[in-house]
Amino acid sequence: MISKFAVAAVLAALAAPAAAQVVPVVQAPVVGTTLAVAAEGKVERAPDVADLSAGVVTQAKTASESMRLNAQKMSAVVAALKRAGVADRDIQTSGLNLSPQYLYRENQPPVLTGYQVSNNVMVRVRDLADMGKTIDALVAQGANQINGPSFRLDKPEPALDEARVAAMTKARQRADLYAKAAGLRVKRIMQISEGSAVTPPPYPVPMMRAQAMEAKDASTPISPGEVEATVTVNVVFELE
Questions:
Q1: What is the model's pTM?
Q2: Which of 139, 163, 205, 235 is the most buried (most CB within 10 A)?
Q3: How far apart are CA 120 and CA 70, in angstroms?
C-alpha cells in the first residue's frame, strides 16, 4: 500500500519541471543619477474634415402630426445635404425625441397643449470650401438647430508622428542641458510614456435661421483655421 508521503513526493517531482520554467527577470541596477523630463511637441495643420449637428424641431397638437411635419422637413434637410455632396456614410441620426408639451398655471393641473419632436443628424463635411453654402442650404430646407462646425484632421497620425519626433528631440536636448549643467552626461533612456491630442479651434455659436436669411446673396462665412496635433512625452534618463 502506497503511503500518503510517497504520493506527495511523486506529485512534487512532477511539479518541479513546471516550476523550473519560471525565470525571474532581473533588471540591471541603476548606477548613475536619473533625470525625468517632460517635453511637448506641437504641429499645426489645416483641417480637412468638419463635423456638425443639424436638426429639426416641430410642434403640433397631436404626436402623429408633429412626427409627420418633422419627417417632412428632415427629409428635405437630408436631401439638401446629399445635393451638397455629402455621402450617405457621412450622415448619421444622433437623436430622435418625442415629448408632450404642457401649460402650467398656478394652483391648476397642467394642460396638454401639444407634442414636440426633435430629430438631429451628425454630418461629416469633407469639402470645407463649400461649408457655408451647405449650412445655408440646411437652414433654407427647414433645419432650425445647427451646432458646429468642429474642425479636425481626417488622418491625424502623420501630424502626430511629426509631433512625437519634435517632443523626443526636445526631451533629449533638455536632458543634455541638465546633464551638462550637472557635470554629467546622458547614458541611456530608461522609460518613455506619451500623451497625444488633436485640438480643433473653437467653433462658433450655433447659427439661427434669421442669421442665415439675412445674407441672401452671400453664404455664411466659415473659417477653418488650423488644428494642433500635440504630443507630450515623459522620459526618464540615466546620467553618469
A1: 0.69
A2: 163
A3: 11
Q: How far from 192 is each of 26, 27, 37, 72, 153, CA to CA, in Å?
A: 20, 17, 10, 56, 26
Mean pLDDT of the chain: 84
Point out the domain boundary residue: 90, 125, 152: 152
Cβ–Cβ under 8 Å, residues 48 and 153:
yes
Residues 172 and 54 in one domain: no
Residue-wise pLDDT for 33-42, tens only, equals 999 999 999 9
Cβ pair 108, 141 in contact under 8 A:
no
Judge if 176 and 235 occupy the same domain.
yes
Same structural domain for residues 41 and 57?
Answer: no
Which residues have C-beta within 8 Å of that of residue 222, sequence separation ≥ 6? 128, 131, 132, 135, 149
Considering 8-12, 124-128, 208-212, the range whose residues carry the highest mean pLDDT is 124-128
Section 122-143 average pLDDT:
90
**For residue 19, with 0-12 CB atoms within 10 Å meaning exposed, 13-18 middle and 19 or more buried, which class applies?**
exposed
* Domain membership of residue 53 as a residue range: 49-152
What CATH number is associated with residue 226?
3.30.110.170
Which of 64-68, 80-84, 90-94, 211-215 has the least mean pLDDT? 211-215
